[in-house]
Design goal:
Number of domains: 2
Bound molecules: zinc ion
Strand content: 35-45%
Largest sheet: 8 strands, antiparallel
Number of strands: 21
Distance between the termini: 55 Å
Order of helices and strands: HEEEEEEEEHHEEEEEEEEEEEEE
CATH class of the largest domain: Mainly Beta
Radius of gyration: 23 Å
């Protein structure tokens, strides 16, 4: 390299340094990664000590500046992310949330009681939903929210996120997870490390159900299991067996229903999972 060229590069480098020092707007970093779309989970990185809000809602930020947030099935087209840095300066992003098209899924032959439950059963469903919501509402600082998930079961995908459901001809709530038609009795693995916040053997709709908190509002839900091998409060490792695939609750056949939440916001697990391994566990 010629001396002249080296000096020129040095000049550029020192001007850049000056520019960085001179501009308070550059003091704070904000990097977002992940699908800004309905059902999407977004990973963010900012400076330690920054405060982050999504449409005015406080977002938990890790000591290293990492954070996550997500968008529900019917999230509006626009969202605003605000960051206030430790020095008082701030920045924001106007996010365009991409809309998705959802399938219509018709399922027939379900017992009437499962489609139009009686009053006593509706009470039970309400009680169980309170319990499920509490488990998903857990706000911990577990550090397992930034990693890739392992597939909890392997098999054909028999139900996708967001589908509008017509059960025995009646419109019902959309399907908010991913159905993996793994063989009955095959192991269900924890998608990542975390703490078990719900382990119920017999919920009305979801049968044998486990919820695992991974931290920062991120939780995975496993439904219709025939057997559960974990208890509430237990720490599990990524890929640890937590029970077996079953056909409990409202199902037409054995499968694992995998759900993904950011607090109460239900996300699409398919958007965070890599390709499914071809080999069985
Ligand atoms: Zn399902």
């Amino acid at each position: 390299m010629s001396l002249r060229r080296a000096t020129f590069l040095q000049l550029i480098a020192s001007s850049l340094t000056l520019l960085l020092l001179a501009s308070p707007a550059l003091a704070g970093t904000l990097v977002l990664e992940g699908p800004v779309e309905q059902g999407g989970l977004v990973h963010g990185k900012t400076d330690p000590g920054a405060k982050v809000t999504l449409d005015g809602r406080a977002v938990r930020v890790a000591d290293d500046g990492g954070f996550i947030f997500g968008f529900g099935r019917d999230a509006p087209a626009e969202a605003r992310l605000d960051v206030v840095f430790a020095d008082g300066s701030s920045t924001h992003r106007d996010l365009k949330v991409a809309a998705r098209q959802y399938d219509i899924q018709r399922i027939n032959g379900l017992p009437t009681q499962q489609v139009t439950p009686d009053a006593a059963t509706l009470e039970r469903i309400k009680r169980e939903q309170v319990e499920i919501n509490a488990a998903r509402g857990v706000d911990s600082s577990l550090p397992f929210f930034e990693r890739a998930f392992v597939w909890p079961a392997v098999g054909p995908i028999s139900g996708v996120y967001g589908s509008q459901r017509i059960l025995n001809g009646e419109p019902r709530a959309p399907h908010m997870g991913l159905d993996i038609a793994a063989p009955r009795g095959s192991p269900v693995l924890a998608a990542d490390a975390g703490t078990v916040t719900l382990a119920e053997r017999d919920l009305f709709f979801t049968g044998g159900t486990v919820i695992i908190d991974h931290g920062y509002g991120l939780a995975t839900t496993y439904q219709h299991m025939d057997r559960i091998d974990v208890t509430v409060g237990q720490h599990v490792a990524a890929g640890q067996p937590i029970g077996i695939v079953g056909a409990t609750g409202r199902v037409t056949g054995p499968h694992l229903h995998l759900g993904l939440n950011w607090y109460e916001v239900r996300l699409d697990p398919a958007l965070v999972m890599g390709p499914m391994p071809t080999a069985q566990h």
